[in-house]
Design brief:
76% helix, single chain, transmembrane helix, 5 helices, membrane, mainly alpha, cell membrane
C-alpha cells in the first residue's frame, strides 16, 4: 500500500484562512437573518394592532435573505475547498456545511475546524516537512 500523498501545508493554511473569514461572516449574517425573521414574524407578524409596520420587515427580509443566501454559498464553496485541500472524509465535509446552518454554530465550528487543521498538519506528511529539517 503506497504512502499517502503529502499535504501542501501552505495551500491548506491559506484555504483555512479563507474559510475562517467565511465562517465569521456567515455566523454574523445568519444572526442578522434570525433577528430580521424574529421581527418580521414574531414581533410584527400575525393579527396584531401594529401589523401595519410589518411591510418594513418584509422589505428588509426580501433584501437580506438573498444576500445571506449568497454568503452561505460562498461559505460552502470555501468549506469544500478546505475539505479538498485537507483530503478529509465525506462526513467532515457535511459537518463543515452543517456548521453554517444553525445560528452561532459557525463560530464554534470554526474553532473546532482550526484544531483539526492544526492536528492534521502536525500528524500527516506535508510538502514542507523537508524545509523544516
Amino acid at each position: 500500500m503506497p504512502a499517502p500523498r503529502p499535504l501542501d501545508e501552505v495551500a491548506c493554511r491559506t484555504s483555512f484562512a479563507r474559510f475562517r473569514v467565511a465562517s465569521i461572516v456567515e455566523g454574523i449574517a445568519l444572526l442578522v437573518l434570525v433577528g430580521i425573521m424574529t421581527m418580521r414574524y414574531g414581533v410584527y407578524g400575525g393579527d396584531t394592532w401594529f401589523a401595519s409596520t410589518s411591510p418594513f420587515w418584509d422589505q428588509v427580509s426580501s433584501v437580506w435573505s438573498p444576500i445571506h443566501g449568497l454568503i452561505y454559498m460562498v461559505y460552502v464553496v470555501l468549506g469544500f475547498d478546505l475539505w479538498m485541500k485537507m483530503r478529509w472524509a465525506l462526513p467532515r465535509m457535511l459537518l463543515l456545511m452543517f456548521f453554517g446552518v444553525i445560528p452561532v454554530l459557525s463560530f464554534f465550528g470554526e474553532r473546532w475546524t482550526h484544531q483539526k487543521v492544526e492536528s492534521d498538519l502536525e500528524l500527516r506528511p506535508t510538502l514542507q516537512d523537508g524545509e523544516r529539517s
